[in-house]
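Long-time lurker. I teach an intro course on protein structure, and each term I like to show students one example going from raw sequence to a predicted 3D structure in token notation. This year I'd like something fresh instead of my usual example. Would anyone be willing to generate the tokens for the chain below so I can use it in lecture? Attribution to the forum is fine with me.
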Amino acid sequence: MSSKEPALPMATLENAPEISRRGLMLVLSSPSGAGKTSISRRLLQEDRRLTMSVSVTTRPPRPGEVDGRDYHFIDLPEFDAMVQAGELLEHARVFSNCYGTPRGPVEAALAAGSDILFDVDWQGTQQLNEKLPRDVVTVFILPPAQAELERRLRSRAQDSEEVVIGRMKKAADEMSHWSEYDYVIVNHDLDRSVAEVTAILCAERLKRERQIGIGDFVRGLIAAGPA
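-- Reply from a regular --
Happy to contribute to a lecture. Here you go:
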């Protein structure tokens, strides 16, 4: 006879107890051309528990944009009223248009255990950190080299030389804020960078303070005693 004990049946994922969790805000920032948009798209495609934050804006819709999916399109008086009422977690004026993140939907998603992806610059990141510091996870994406960043900007073939030079100058200022972020990734390769951000997201979801139901779960384990 074998001295091995019979294997116990493994619990399926369907039968595993759900532990309630508070959601998180995953913030990605980078200079233009570093790959943030490509990384964001892959994350949203591959992780159904992650949704994109939908901002409000005062600019008119562009062809193909849908209200409520791409942005919430509002007028300037309504935007100003939201700012005055404290209904925006972060906001900024870009040229002649205003953009902001509504507080209500974000707080409701976090309470429901949903995770939200943000594509904002370092100034927007600072504002989010001021409002909900315990819920924010920040990642800065760097290009592998200055020459590669310039190549990526020029390869778009949609910006003038003046615009490319302006973006390169702005990139230097944006990259100077890398040390304000929780994590920093150098985007040598898209697949690798997506895997690294996914690993960050997985680890942050498992943080003790975000698993708000873990206490009840452990007490249940202890109360059950030996089988």
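Some talking points for your students: Residues 190-205 form the longest helix (16 residues). Residues 25-222 form a domain with the Rossmann fold fold (CATH 3.40.50.300).
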